[in-house]
What we know:
It is a single chain. The protein is mainly beta. The chain has a single domain (8-259), classed as monomeric porin ompg (Porin), CATH 2.40.160.40. Helices cover 10% and strands 51% of the residues. The protein is built from three helices and 14 strands. It has a twelve-stranded antiparallel barrel. A hairpin with a 4-residue loop joins strand 6 and strand 7.
Amino acid sequence: MVEHQLPKLSMRVRFPSPAPGIRRWATTRKGFVAALAFCVLSGLAVPSGAAELSGYLILTTDYVFRGVSQSDEHGAVQLGADANFQSGWYFGAWGSTVDIGAGTPRQRDLEVNYYLGYTRDVSRKWTIGGNAVAYAYPGAAGLIDYDYTEYSLTSNFDDRLWIEYSYSPDLYHTSESAQNLSLYTEWQAGDLFKFGVGAGYYDVSNLIGDGYANWQIGVTRSFKYLTLDLRYHDASRWLPIISSPDHAGARIVLSAKFQI
């Protein structure tokens, strides 16, 4: 993902932006069509000019998304690739091993995210944008379709403060909506380290009748082709379907990102 959005690691142990995902190819395709239609109707320019391409590999001790472990508190391997255009458009794909379902008929072992977005500078320090993410779980067991699409509005102040509002109109194909608000701030500490603090609230009350808060504190050290991140995550509570008592507790995660 790109740095137009929240730092990826702030939302999911992904670098360097928070954003998007996908689920099954059929859902992904619908999400992409909806995203493209939204952007065109908004009068945004079609991607043009040479694209800046990047790829990365991430090894993490635990894949955490919005305060909840998605890998059953085990390690995960993640791959991602982005294309960024001078016009402000970007798109990409990201995937991770997961362990959701604890071997039940709802087991999921792989998550893939596809995303499309646009950002625009509105002043010397402020940037705003929007994106659509399709979350997919290829090969998921059971009859429940966990694929869904999420749409986000983002704002960035001087690459120090990020605000993101996300909305899912049909979470897990239940016809129930969900929304999330996240804030993240980051600052340089000397020449070597960056410190970051973030918090969010995931409102799934239409589906479950409640929501929960989550927060994180982390430190990042970057080298030429390697970025190391040590981060503390926690959540205010666990909720059925979204998490479990073991997966929503406090945890410390170490991640290494290798630029490809």
